[in-house]
Prior knowledge:
22% helix, 4-stranded antiparallel β-sheet, disordered C terminus, disordered N terminus
Amino acid sequence: xxxxxxxxxxxxxxxxxxxxxxxxxxxxxxxxxxxxxxxxxxxxxxxxxxxxxxxxxxxxxxxxxxxxxxxxxxxxxxxxxxxxxxxxxxxxxxxxxxxxxxxxxxxxxxxxxxxxxxxxxxxxxxxxxxxxxxxxxxxxxxxxxxxxxxxxxxxxxxxxxxxxxxxxxxxxxxxxxxxxxxxxxxxxxxxxxxxxxxxxxxxxxxxxxxxxxxxxxxxxxxxxxxxxxxxxxxxxxxxxxxxxxxxxxxxxxxxxxxxxxxxxxxxxxxxxxxxxxxxxxxxxxxxxxxxxxxxxxxxxxxxxxxxxxxxxxxxxxxxxxxxxxxxxxxxxxxxxxxxxxxxxxxxxxxxxxxxxxxxxxxxxxxxxxxxxxxxxxxxxxxxxxxxxxxxxxxxxxxxxxxxxxxxxxxxxxxxxxxxxxxxxxxxxxxxxxxxxxxxxxxxxxxxxxxxxxxxxxxxxxxxxxxxxxxxxxxxxxxxxxxxxxxxxxxxxxxxxxxxxxxxxxxxxxxxxxxxxxxxxxxxxxxxxxxxxxxxxxxx
Length: 539
């Protein structure tokens, strides 16, 4: 008895080790699976009826046990079951499970909230989403949704956003296609308008269907873009035309004959000849019915173009006035005396003399508060007209800054050193320098820019298109055959769909002419009302 009790205690405290003959105890998962498993063969044949030994109660009992499993055990059980399923049974499982993950929440949301969410989709994705169902088509076709997409396109004038009648989706798609044509040259029509013989085109204006070119041959020509021909030749100046300004159907021209002439470009009539300057009229700035002229006689004059009256005389510069800006309230002038002056034209007083340049001032921009001046001293200066202070000196060019364009805080400058630079005038930093293997090879003659692109022309006979954000060269819009042999692009002008270039040469290698590129969608075809809105309305 004693020895028996001893062996019993030993058995409880130290269980016998498992041997190959000793079966392991099954897990709950495997045990539960065994309860509903018949044989491998009976499970893998979908058409075979369930074994009679497995009843509904057996299955229900296993399901109840399955509910009690831990999450990990449930996953193991599912893995084991899926291994036992044939193709039809697996397809049945998918059919049962998929609907649980398919929920069209967009159709269940209020329309305003659904559209707000869809605004985050790219335009291409919106178009694809329209084929989902009728509800999605209506939501993705919403005019407000596409109006917001249109705001990203600089080709679409800002004032159109007030309209409630436009097909915004169509307008967006037209704008995208137009942008693609500019970038790739995939679709365009080219016209050549020949005139001014072999003389230099000194100034170029463009609005709507009308182009006005001025030349050192003493004439101006009025052209129709659509007809591709010269409508009028404006004669009357006795010296070369050096500058012009176009507002509506009125163009003003300044000449070496010391006069300004006011013309109606529809009738060709010279409305007024403005006398007063004693030397070449070198620059003009026009606002509504007032034009300001700057002359080599070192004075500026303010004229009413309707009456031909000289309203004000601004005296203060000590050398030729080379450039002028006028916003309707203030006149800003730059001269060969190295100074920039800010004037109140109504009182004929100089509010500020902005000194700092050490050589002639050749170019100006003015946005109502900030003045930007470019000089032969290679610098560009930013001035604040509220106190006359110099805010920034922009250094980086190596020669004369011949042209500039300013929009909000972004300034683009073109220089005789062949470089174009993009600046932020608020910080005084250079954002981009447009260079690289495709840069201009000679002086930059003209430049324009919008929210996406910079267009530049040069003495090297090319017009180039650049990405304004990255500074990346996109392509040559124009490349004259005489490029590198004397061919020059003197001036460029553009609207949303067309580019006008004044080209020629000083050695006879290129005929003087205007080249017009029309990049509009379906160029040369009949336009509908939506296309016309995109085409002719400018900001």
